[in-house]
From TrEMBL:
SUBUNIT field: Part of the 50S ribosomal subunit.
Organism: Marseilla massiliensis
Keyword 4Fe-4S listed: no
Region of interest called Disordered, as start-end residue ranges on this chain: 48-89
Name of the protein described by the UniProt record: Large ribosomal subunit protein uL4
Keywords associated with the record: Ribonucleoprotein, Ribosomal protein, RNA-binding, rRNA-binding
UniProt feature, compositional bias: Basic and acidic residues: 50-59
One MF term in the entry's GO annotations: structural constituent of ribosome
NCBIfam families: rplD_bact
Protein family: Belongs to the universal ribosomal protein uL4 family.
Role this protein plays: Forms part of the polypeptide exit tunnel.
GO biological process, one term: translation
GO CC annotation, single: ribonucleoprotein complex
Keyword Iron: no
Length: 209
């Protein structure tokens, strides 16, 4: 699949890039997409929720009433879960929500996500660019020139670029990522991928090792 290379003014440079069929032209696997998105979302969970159990509450351990014959439950001391202010039964405890996936599964998921975007014609390729200073207005003008303004955008750059990142930071529907950090969730979440020429080469190298 060939795509025209544009400049940041939205003009055709006369060059074309061929998207690697092994990355952008495979038959997407929906199940591995689900697994990789689930893994990403799980990694965002802090897992710090904590409730005090019976043994962790401060309070007297004196038995409040007789074991039998009171007409109610056997509640023991004041820290009993049956009483207000008592410990919680099976409450949340700190845990790690991360999910492990095989490397081949994550690679297939990313290829599937990129293939979906290619099928939807939701990939725009621009020549490598830089901004002289961090300026949101300049970044907005680029999106207008590329005719992708108003859409949820993911700009993929070959390396970290502070000026571009800071220029896009104030925009709710635009995000900038390095090609090496690209993940399945971000690709699927965006309406359009705006990728530079060199970032395509890096993605090919990473996903075809």
């Amino acid at each position: 699949m060939e795509i025209n290379v544009l400049n940041i003014k939205g003009e055709n440079t006369g060059r074309k890039v061929t998207l690697n069929e092994s990355v952008f032209g495979i038959e997407p696997n929906d199940h591995v997409l689900y697994l990789d998105v689930k893994r990403y979302m799980a990694s965002l969970r802090q897992g710090t929720a904590k409730a005090k159990e019976r043994s962790e509450h401060a309070g007297s351990t004196r038995k409040l009433g007789r074991q039998k014959g009171g007409g109610g439950a056997r509640r023991g001391d004041i820290n009993s879960p049956l009483l207000k202010g008592g410990g919680r039964v099976f409450g949340p405890t700190p845990r790690d929500y991360s999910i492990k996936l095989n490397h081949k599964v994550t690679v297939l998921a990313r290829k599937s996500a990129l293939s979906y975007k290619a099928k939807e014609d939701a990939i725009v390729v621009v020549e490598d660019f830089n901004l002289d200073a961090p300026k949101t207005k300049d970044f907005v003008n680029i999106t207008k020139n590329l005719k992708v303004d108003g859409k949820k955008l993911l700009f993929v750059l070959p390396e970290s670029n502070k000026n571009v990142y800071l220029s896009a930071r104030n925009l709710q529907r635009a995000e900038v990522m390095m090609a090496s950090s690209l993940n399945t969730y971000k690709v699927l979440d965006a309406d359009v991928l705006v990728m530079t020429e060199n970032s395509l080469k890096i993605i090919d190298e990473i996903l075809n090792k």
